[in-house]
Amino acid sequence: ANVSHELKTPLTSIQGYAQALLDGAAADPQRAAGVIHDEAQRLARLVEELLDLAKLDTGQAALDRRPVDLPAILAAIVERLTLKAQERGVLLENHANTLPGLIGDGDRLAQVFTNLIDNALKHTPRGGVVKLGSEAEPGWITVHVEDSGPGIPPNELSRIFERFYQLDKARSGSGPRGVGLGLAISREIVQAHGGTVSATSAMGQGSRFSVRLPIIRPGDVTLARPRA
Ligand code: ADP
Q1: pTM of the model as a whole
Q2: Which candidate, 44, 171, 193, places its Cα nearest to that of 113?
Q3: Ligand 1 in contact with 123 (CB < 6 A)?
Q4: Which helix (DSSP H) or strand (DSSP E) does residue 115 occupy?
Q5: Which has the closest alpha carbon to 211: 161, 165, 173?
Q6: Separation of CA 118 and ligand 1 centre (Å)
Q7: Angle, vertex CA 181, rays to CA 168 and CA 49, nearest 5
Q8: Residue whose C-alpha is closest to residue 207's, from 219, 192, 197
Q9: Rounded Cα–Cα distance for residues 187 and 128 (Å)
Q10: Could you identify the atom of ligand 1 that is nearest to the CA of residue 123?
Q11: Is residue 139 a contact partner of residue 133, using CB atoms and an 8 Å limit?
Q12: Tens of pLDDT along 18-35?
């Protein structure tokens, strides 16, 4: 039901604007074309994320486990997103540089951190800061992504990882509207690594997302988590 609802809304809007263009009834054809373009883009993203979730669900997306240099991965993501941060007038600081190596799927972990940093940038107002930090404890490492955005209400903190869950639009950052699957996908990936992802937040001060991952060494081969 969720999926069909999410598909239907942009389709209805594409149909409506396309019909208006065909009838020559669109007051502003350029804008109508723009709406069609944006909604089609949103649909494409929705389908892509749904397919990704389906793969993770059925276990088809087997993790490609290799030794992972997490600080290098984080540095590469930060480098890639620095321009975007500058354009938004947000400072992006990477303090996550002392981390032991671990075994995992580097591409999938990069997807998780890209999503978290993207979200943090999207929700942080001009002049704000997004910070990456890290902690190590025996057997585990934790990477934090902290923003100085509006925060997430306490009663919604546990729900933002649910599929399709979105905070109300007024609070949903700027830029193209998401589909509420990014955090759900991130959680699946982290759990497949035997880890957890959580969030804390203070209204008006910001949010902090933490990814805690077990340090698995070569030889620890039996991490595959049987699906419930
Ligand atoms: P989307 O792709 O729609 O952003 P996500 O699964 O990434 O979906 O996020 C779920 C909800 O949590 C969204 O409504 C988003 O606005 C909110 N959210 C995610 N990260 C943050 C953050 N750092 N600060 C405030 N709200 C956030």
Answers
A1: 0.86
A2: 193
A3: yes
A4: helix 106-123
A5: 161
A6: 9
A7: 140
A8: 197
A9: 26
A10: 24
A11: no
A12: 999 999 998 899 999 999
